[in-house]
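tool=predict chain=A
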Amino acid sequence: MLDNHYIASLDLDDLSKKEQVVIDKVFKRAFYRKEDDFVQMPSKLFTSQEHKAKELLLNKGILQFNHKKNYSTIIGRSKSYRVNKAYLDKIVFRVVKQEPYLQNQLFSNDSLHKWILDCLGGISLDIDPTPNLQRLYLIGNSKLWIKRKDAQSRIYSSITNLNREFREHLLLDGQKLVKLDIKSCQPYILSKLSKDIYMMDLCTYKSKDFYSYVGDVLGIGDREIAKKTVIGSLFDRENRIYRRDIQNVLQDHFPVAYDYISKVKKDGYNQLAIKLEQEEVRYMEKVWGTLAKEKIRFLTVHDCLMVYKENVKRVEEVMKGVFGTDPPRIKRD
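tool=predict ok
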């Protein structure tokens, strides 16, 4: 998406041009991921000279290699790397194309996608971002992008992987936005698919919370840490931290959901994640369609919508209405 649109270089005098190119490629590919995540780098991305430069960067400790995990791609296994955190603050970020434009890779051109695309084009910022606010700098000074693989896939765009604090600066048609987020969305959808009544209670009643409940059982006091632990254990084959404990909690406290998970995963470890995402998209597309018909402006970030303040009540009604009985809680932010 961002190739040839900006240059990322490391502010060190002793790096060769080839080494700077490798830094640029790794940083660009990792740009919309979390800072501590390794990023998939297929071998074909590097020339033979860049492969040598990559090895030099690894030896210097500037790049780090993920020894625990490789990735499967259509061309085989792919290794993963990241820029050492100690050097991230020395990355120099320079936009080379200043004219803003919108890159559209939506799979269809129907009225719904036209509306979503038009809303994305209405984005502006309430601050003047400097290059150190890199994601916002690209949104404000270069290009926006949006893509969707097919009707069962999530919509990804320039704003989907923005940090929460960055989203605070987004405006739509010059107006401030309110975020409406489905609370505990994945457990909620899992409870609907599996018909686990107890899990459903934790996801729908205001006085309860699924992730906090599991965290209390495991002795994890922080809800966000508990959430990451549950999601990592359920969806990431390589993430073994707390996996047995999470399985025991599910089996002991949510046996109906546990049986459903076991059946789904018989067809492949990733099938649970795929199933839940497809179900999330199925519900959210109903929401998007209703809002588009009513000409309500919105930005979408998976199970979260960003809307004008005057539309909050109506959008909450639509978000709950598509789920029928026992709708999820909607967090207003």
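The longest strand covers residues 76-83. The chain is about 45% helix and 20% strand.
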